[in-house]
Amino acid sequence: MSNTISLLTPADCALLLIDQQAGLAFGVGSSDRQVLLDNSVAVARTADVFKVPIVAFTSASKVYSGPMMPAIQHVIPNVKSIERRNMNAWEDDASRQAVIATGRKRLLISGLLTEACVSFCALSAKADGFDVWVIGDACGGLTPTSHDLALRRMEAAGITLTSWIQVLLELQRDWTRHDTYDGARGIVESHAGGYGIGLAYSRDMIHPT
Question: Which Pfam families match (predicted)?
């Protein structure tokens, strides 16, 4: 029997955006905050292009953390965050039921902070039988060390670690898939650094005979 993890498909996963709020982003020290925000926007755009259900959570939005960061909310205007008190969204009935209601058993997670709200939800969902994938470069921790240790703990528990660009390319897989081609390519050009610059260049400058 093969132990290979099957590749992601748009029909089998849901995206969880956990506490993508400025009040928490202030405390991120594991990576450049602007890069992290850019990666998180790319994740949200990817889910939207591939019609992956998105469940967003916020906490303490009125007293400290603020609403979902505007750059993320802007690309998914129809997604309304579920407010909760518990650091662990999986221990909040409304939050957990919203995830279950998507009907998807494979969960992609992006959020803040890695050491708490991200890892608590990921570990609890995994324990309940969900196939959990954490998008490491779209999560932020308080320090590089604590972020890395949280990722390592989740990986040891059987959670798959990935990156936003791998999620996008895995969902697309074939550039002849025309329904998502323009959307996926636009995300790459906007958010994937040199790779995106190269795609834009090839479109504008290389003209096959």
Answer: Isochorismatase
